[in-house]
Amino acid sequence: MLKVEDWAEIRRLCRAEGVSIKEIVRRMGVSRNTVRGAVRSDSPPEFERKPRLSAADSFETEIRRLLSEHPRMPTTVIAERIGWSRGMTILKDRVRELRPLFVPPDPCGRTEYQPGELAQWDLWFPPTPVPLEDGSLAKPPVLVGVSGYSRVMVGEMIPTREAHDILSAHLLCLGQLGGVPRKGVYDNEAALVSRHGGKATLTEPFQRFRGTLGMGVVICRPGDPEAKGLVERANGYLEQSFLPGRRFSSPADFNSQLGAWLELANNRIHATLRCRPRDRLTEDRKAMMTFPPVLPDPALRLGLRLPRDHWVRVGTCDYSVHPKAIGRRAEVRVDPVEVVITLAGEVVGRHRRSFAKHRTLTDSDHVSAAKLMRMAGSTQSSMGSKDDEVEQRDLAVYDRVLGVV
What we know:
By secondary structure, the chain is of the alpha+beta class. The chain has helices spanning 4-15, 21-28, 32-40, 60-69, 75-82, 88-98, 163-177, 204-213, 229-242, 251-265, 277-287, 364-387, 396-402; strands at residues 118-124, 130-131, 137-138, 142-147, 153-157, 183-186, 193-196, 199-202, 216-219, 300-305, 311-314, 317-320, 329-334, 338-343, 346-352, 360-361. The protein has a five-stranded mixed sheet with strand order 5-4-1-6-9, sandwiched between helices.
């Protein structure tokens, strides 16, 4: 068979240099008919191998019959029904070719997001441990959000998976977006959603939060991560591009490094959009809802009467309070950053929130105040025992009353 390079050379000699067929035969050492065929052919010669017979050919009619009745029948079942005794690779290849003739096509759709339409939210658990206040290592959750239209990513590490911590970080992330998307997509996080009888119900803190913002909520079905594929891919992107090679000294350091990295990530060319997410954020914000005049306050609030042990427990940690609040009712406000205790509007305790568990956080001023109060109480007690005289009744009065005297 004539090679492609010989075919090209014959046509060059004939068309470009005008060499005669007889001369081309002499130069190329091929037959006259071969030269004539190459000159007349506008396409290069192709070698066509004769198809080899397959062991599945004799079973094709039976395979087609089975697929026409049961288009999704597994190949292993087909092999059993037709009495196949050879290797499965040949049969699988033939079934793979024939099955599309009987199964209707199922094209996937491309999801298009409108500006300000929605954002997807999820808790990401970084595999890299972070040092806590007590020197221990832990993997606190990170709330991650992605805007559907602009693909801008936001995130914040939080101490726990409780509703007040998630929603406090949620409000902070919305501030980074600069508006409120009309809908949010969530999975079945227990602090936000409860399921009974297959029906999803938002928890009361989440209802108050989204009601104040006027935001719609879409809850994914259990075991359906594709429903929020944007934020799932963002979690993978964080693990592949943000974490490698980094060291963190505390959760606050983690959030600081994450914020700086997100600024870079949101200014890179997005693989799907072919533009920078930050470039689309302005249009996204214009279509988002504005924040209400009064923002929701998702912080945890506790009211309690302070005992003589002037510490309040939040989660598993104890935070000291000024001893002047002993015996009185105090208000405790807890957010992911700090714990504030107030008494009739006056701050009697303020501590940075501890990510570590089972810790006691004590303000030195509270210890000094308690010591002074104990000393003052001891002094008053000793003075009373020396100067105060207790009146004693004259027992002769009873003798006179009874007529004994």
